[in-house]
Amino acid sequence: MSAKRNVYEVYSLAFQLQVAKEALEIGNTDQIASKYKLGIDLLNQWILQYKTGELDDSLLSFPTSIDIDVDPPNGITGFPQDMPAEDLKASATELMGKIRVSDEGSDQKFRSMKVLALHSQFEIVFHIENGKTLSASEIWIPDNSDSIRINIRFRGIDIFRTPALQLLKQIENMGYQVINQGDYCFVPKLSLGFTRVAGHEVPLDTDGYPLYFQAVLTGPTNYYDFLLERD
């Protein structure tokens, strides 16, 4: 029998306030609890805190955009390589509103610590392979249909608005070797990886794969260099 995984969630005060106000505005706590995958008792607690003034409107701020630069092998904006796990959890909660921590402190190969940062429009998975500090950051394609514009860039190139094959060509023109496996693409000397695997229907390119990358990962130095040994 496998051991039960250690998973818990953390929410920013701004997220709690936003959800409590939304529940009061529509008058249906069950619907909001389901929407955000919350327990009804927790949601009612936030609503009570809002009514009593513990959650104040001053906590809310609404940025018009979120800008993240992918800078391999140094990490991403706000989350440098080797960032301590406790600092990462605090920063991710503030940026995204909600995090889900699994296997805290674990350095097991197939069950190492992860922090899933959840924004209403996109997700970031932080891999903490030694259980203590950030190993790799994996950003999933944003939904830009909402009011906040999410910009994820690599050296000024918009990763999720540039067609995948075009992006790979631009990286090759920088002098890097690209390994294109169709669903997955890697730039070993940059510690940069991409996936075109999509969980829903998306536009396809002429090669039959999704037109845009669905996720990008940046890891530490030499993260993908083992792939060169296979060539």
Description of the molecule:
It contains 5 helices and 14 strands. The strands form 3 sheets. The protein has a 9-stranded antiparallel β-sheet with strand order 1-5-6-7-8-14-13-12-11. Strands 2-9-10 form a 3-stranded mixed β-sheet, with no helix packed on it. Strands 3-4 form a two-stranded antiparallel sheet. It has 2 domains: 50 residues, Arc Repressor Mutant, subunit A (Orthogonal Bundle); 160 residues. The radius of gyration is 19 Å and the shape is globular. The model has no long low-confidence stretch (mean pLDDT 91). The protein is an alpha+beta fold and 231 residues long. The longest helix has 14 residues. α1 crosses α3. β9 and β10 form a beta hairpin.
Summarize the structure.
Helices cover 24% and strands 29% of the residues.
- Series of H and E elements: EHHHEEEHEEEEEEHEEEE
- Our measurement of the CA-to-CA distance between the termini, rounded to an integer number of angstroms, reads 39 Å
Strand tally, please? 14
Coarse morphology: globular
Q: Summarize the main sheet.
A: 9 strands, antiparallel
Helix/strand/pairing category: alpha+beta
Q: Please compute the radius of gyration using only Cα atoms.
A: 19 Å
- List segments where confidence is low: pLDDT < 50 over at least 5 consecutive residues: none
Beta fraction of the residues? 25-35%
Q: What spatial order of strands do you see in the largest sheet?
A: 1-5-6-7-8-14-13-12-11
Percent of residues in helices comes to: 10-25%
Number of domains: 2
Number of helices: 5
Mean pLDDT: 91
